[in-house]
Design goal:
Two copies of one chain form a homodimer. By secondary structure, the first copy, chain A, is of the alpha+beta class. Chain A folds into two domains: about 350 residues, Bira Bifunctional Protein, Domain 2 (BirA Bifunctional Protein, domain 2), CATH 3.30.930.10; about 100 residues, 3-Layer(aba) Sandwich (Rossmann fold), CATH 3.40.50.800. Chain A contains 17 helices and 16 strands. Chain A has an eight-stranded mixed beta sheet with strand order 1-5-6-11-10-9-7-8. In chain A, β15 and β16 form a beta hairpin. In chain A, α8 runs antiparallel to α13, α9 crosses α10 and α12 runs antiparallel to α13. The longest helix of chain A has 20 residues. Chain A is elongated, with a radius of gyration of 29 Å. Chain A starts with 16 loop residues before the first helix and ends with a helix. In chain A, about 45% of the residues are buried. The model of chain A has no long low-confidence stretch (mean pLDDT about 90). β3 of chain A pairs antiparallel with β3 of chain B, so a sheet runs across the interface.
Chain lengths: ~450, ~450
């Protein structure tokens, strides 16, 4: 076989020890908070049946699904079909039955429906797993990335919205990242649609103003004009979504504008409840009402959230979520309201990396002690060296022996290079019939100690 | 859209909170030992280029690869090819460029080659990730399953074989599972091949005796006869691989039989070193020489291992590994010797489950305290209840409020059912203007305590 120059698929990444340690630090921080708030873990398969996935993420989403080729008789199937398939989509559907997980919400809804008889509601679950999208890779956007979700289904209590906002606050406080938690309510958007042009235009308006950050007021206006919105309608829309002031003032003004929309007033009431009830944050997180926040996914029906980092160059969303009243309905279980949030691990990583907020002491799982001898390990009597190793490991101290040939004139040269590459902090230097030397590799300080003294030092 | 009855692809599984907790317990046990032995984590992408994967696992392996459909113009490509593709394999290759990770060894070799300039050797890495194989699902065999691997590359020191054996021993000691760690050496198998029929028959012999467990002596003999092995050759083979006795006796007998094979004697010498040097295990693990252990994969060149549980009905391998002298060679980096082992998470899980060895106290990440009120939460003044919740959470005590409507005549009925489903051990019962009641849900014992006293109790 020809020797290939190996590579990995675009949009995917390898993670070395340092990156794994940093990613784990974020995952552990999020998980700890999820648990503190009473969420329990589930995991779903990497592959889902296409019938579970398609039609849930819009046409755009369907195009971004990675499909898995059935190993069976696909070729014969195609050949026998006399190739009467008309387009890419029909082709894909004819030869694949499975796809890679696209998000954690739809698999969760599928899980709830399949396990409805065993689950006691409200069901509070968290899930931290990778998802895949065949998107064009760019800065902050990968084809394989991790989501960390917490959802409650089977309860319409706003207590859960409060909990989820507090989870965002607490996680980003622990991570040291200043964030703005934007909040809006799809019922308010419904009210706005009603006032502007009619409730049936809710989705059109939501999709349009969702792009406000990207294409600006002008772009959104243009798009709406093309969709037969009049100048007055567009002006009314912008008049409302750009209301300024304190949260209380904004909601008061909106109340007047939406006075004829029962739905809109209900949404305002929900936000008022949240502002009234939530404890003030004692860190740099900000809860900010934003009437222009829409969130594309059409399944949201109540409060919606989006989190944006306040510092650094990456201003895109690092988390989001909201309430959905009938997500499990697509799988045949109606009347189950839910609310959930998601953390985007990879973007959070990029923000923390850019802002240099990772703790310096993150363990990469490296040894604490490297045992070195004054000669190559193959030339010396092994038993006493292995005994030292066992004593350290038996005390739970991660340790290893330098296993390679050394230069006897500079016996520490190679081992120290090795230790430094792994950030091993100490060397234990063994010479037959001589006291052990214990060397701090950061300071270079070296002293003669017994193995028991060394263990005592390291356990302090 | 029609409502579908949802399902998941065959050979895949959902994991609920209890299963996630049990899986994490195994993963954490393995990871802790890996770290103690100086291994550092890496993670590789779920998808690899097909050029990385194909040809590495034999023809049988290639057939079991899950391929990922490129989202691009595959249909047009097929159409334009005028459908001149002849068979399934050609078809698959023409429309896919990526596949799901099949094991952790090949991606690791790829990683080492791609990062050769940054890596200091010996490189000791561990990796715990799922892999996928389109195998026929059956008991103990899944299409998505996890491997936990530890490998050392860039060293040919037998110290690493010792470490890996000790890792197997320590992990299964921690898990309480009695195991037999079978050991053999491919150099011994080479010696046997030399003595039986010629070194060029090594792979044929390895593949045949690998099936001994499944098809028995008769089956293996039949297969070898069909491959033109004479009766005498087959008898010589079985004479050697069934040598019995203590490890020392077995190796002594073998030394005589392989006296004319330099390679074979080298293999014996390696096993002798391991037996001489390894500390005796102080638990139920057994290190057992087995000359019939072959391990199918042709890249092994030195010691090989296989771990089998000693109790329970699942007698298939729950781990295995060995030394390979040139795995990175396929990606263009020659002369790098490596040795590694793998743990099969899912089979280990099945064994521990069957033997009822999971600790009873495994945390599923559930709350410690459920706050209940004497009326539905929507009917009472929220502030004091939220204050209790915050006090508990601020002390790191996982807690939640029962958020649903209750039956005021039996105010604890629904909350206790909920708590019991989540294994929440305590309820805090709030009634306006009355002392708090703190109830142990296991014993039913209830007492009046202040929130500070409750926190003190829970922190003990």
């Amino acid at each position: 076989m020809a020797k290939e120059k190996p590579s990995i698929p675009k949009g995917t990444r390898d993670f070395g020890p340092e990156e794994v340690a940093k990613r784990k630090y974020i995952l552990n921080t999020i998980e700890k908070v999820f648990i503190k708030y009473g969420f329990m873990p589930i995991e779903t398969p990497t592959m889902e049946n296409l019938s579970t996935l398609t039609g849930k993420y819009g046409d755009e989403g369907d195009k971004l699904l990675f499909r898995i080729l059935d190993s069976g008789e696909t070729f014969e199937k195609i050949r026998n079909s006399k190739f009467e398939i008309r387009n890419q989509n029909e082709f894909n559907n004819s030869i694949t039955e499975k796809g890679l997980r696209y998000d954690l919400t739809v698999p969760f809804a599928r899980y709830v429906v399949m396990n409805r008889n065993e689950i006691t509601f409200p069901f509070k679950r968290y899930q931290m797993q990778p998802v895949w999208r065949a998107d064009r890779p760019q800065k902050g956007r990968y084809r394989e990335f991790w989501q960390c979700d917490a959802d409650v289904v089977g309860s319409d209590s706003l207590l859960h919205e409060l909990d989820l906002i507090n989870i965002y606050n607490e996680v980003f406080k622990c991570l040291g990242v200043g964030v703005e938690i934007k909040i809006n309510n799809r019922k308010i958007l419904a009210g706005i649609a009603e006032v502007v042009k009619g409730i049936e235009h809710l989705n059109t308006i939501a999709v349009a103003i969702d792009k406000l950050d990207k294409i600006g007021k002008e772009g959104v206006s243009k798009e709406l004009t093309e969709l037969n919105f009049t100048e007055i309608e567009i002006a009314t829309l912008f008049d409302i979504i750009t209301i300024k002031g304190t949260e209380t003032e904004m909601l008061e003004v909106l109340k007047v504008k939406l006075q004829n929309s029962t739905e809109g007033l209900k949404g305002i009431e929900e936000l008022v409840f949240i502002y009234k009830t939530i404890q003030p944050f004692n860190n740099s997180a900000i809860l900010k009402t934003d009437f222009s926040l829409a969130r594309g996914l059409s399944y949201y029906t109540g409060c919606i959230f989006e989190v944006v980092a306040m510092e650094g160059s990456l201003r895109s969303s690092i988390g989001g979520g909201g309430r959905y009243d009938n997500l499990t309905g697509i799988f045949g279980l109606d009347g189950v309201s839910g609310v959930g949030i998601s953390f985007g691990l990879d973007r959070i990583y990029d923000v923390i990396e850019e802002l240099k907020l990772f703790p310096e002491t993150l363990s990469q799982g490296s040894s604490k002690v490297l045992i070195c001898a004054n000669d190559s390990i193959e030339n010396i009597e092994l038993a006493p060296v292995l005994q030292l190793l066992n004593k350290l490991r038996n005390e739970g101290i991660a340790s290893e022996i330098y296993s390679e040939k050394i230069n006897v004139k500079k016996p520490l040269e190679k081992p120290i290079k090795y230790a430094s590459s792994k950030a091993i902090p100490y060397a234990l230097i063994y010479t037959e019939n001589q006291p052990l030397k214990f060397k701090n590799l950061a300071t270079g300080f070296q002293e003669e100690l017994t193995i028991e003294e060394i263990i005592e030092r390291l356990q302090d």
